Every structure is written in structure tokens, then in C-alpha cells.
Amino acid sequence: MKKLQSLWQIDWEDASTSHGWEDNNEVKPDREIVTTVGFLIKRSKASITIASTISEGTCNSRITIPMGMVRDLREIKVKYQVREAKEIVHPPSDQLQSPSDDDSRKNPS
């Protein structure tokens, strides 16, 4: 049986940035707490990495958050299944419809 990656919700303090010329006395030290949800890829004392999309042995859209920025960490209990990749079979190009073919059916001349 395949080991499933757990799904996590992370509430963390995001860094902020600004651009352009600004008065040094107008710095706003507001803290922004944000929430990110994803599949756990790696966790250490220093950081946690999650991904929004997973497949067998690969992932996409990863984010690594330093643990010093993490305010709350919760595992989300869900049942899911990683599906095996299947070959995609495309129809021959002469069987594909072009958008103009659709238009002619909607508005016959």
C-alpha cells in the first residue's frame, strides 16, 4: 500500500514588502497572519515544506516556511487516494472541432 502524504494547515506570520520612495517615519510594523494548506513534503526543526499538488514521488507549487514564522500547525484529517498516471490518448487532429465550427452551429448563416 502506498504511503499517503498528510494534509496540513499552517497559520504563519508573513513578511511584507513595499516599493517606491517612502518616508522612513511611515513604517507600519503591522503583522500579517496568513494561512496555507498543502500536502506535507518535509518537516524539520528549521522549516516545513508543503505542496499544493502531488503525484507519485513528485510535487508542484511548493512553499517552505521557516518554523520561526509558524504560529499554528494542524493536520487536516481527510481520506484521499493518489491515482496512478494513465496515458492520455488524444483524438486524431481531423476529429477535433475548431471554435469556428461551434460558432457556425450556434448562428447558422
Secondary-structure blueprint:
Blueprint: E1 7-14, E2 32-43, E3 47-55, E4 58-66, E5 70-76, H1 99-106
Antiparallel strand pairs: 1-2, 1-5, 2-3, 3-4
Q: Can you walk through the features of this model?
A:
7% of the residues lie in helices and 41% in strands. It has 1 helix and 5 strands. Strand 3 and strand 4 form a beta hairpin. The protein has a domain of 67 residues: SH3 type barrels. Strands 4-3-2-1-5 form a 5-stranded antiparallel beta sheet, with no helix packed on it. The chain has 109 residues and is mostly beta strands.
Strand segment count? 5
Averaged pLDDT, please? 80
Unreliable spans are none
Which range best describes the helical content: under 10%, 10-25%, 25-40%, 40-55%, 55-70% or over 70%? Answer: under 10%
User: How large is the share of residues in beta strands?
Assistant: 35-45%
* Secondary-structure class: mainly beta
Q: Please report the first level of CATH classification, the CATH class of one domain.
A: Mainly Beta
Strand order of the largest sheet: 4-3-2-1-5
Order of helices and strands: EEEEEH
What is the helix tally? 1
Distance between the termini: 59 Å
CATH-defined architecture of one domain: Roll
The CATH topology of one domain? SH3 type barrels
Rg, rounded, reads 23 Å
Shape: flat
Main sheet record: 5 strands, antiparallel
Give a quick precis of the structure.
It contains one helix and five strands. It is mostly beta strands.
List the defining traits of the structure above.
109 residues, mainly beta, SH3 type barrels, 5-stranded antiparallel β-sheet, 1 helix, 7% helix
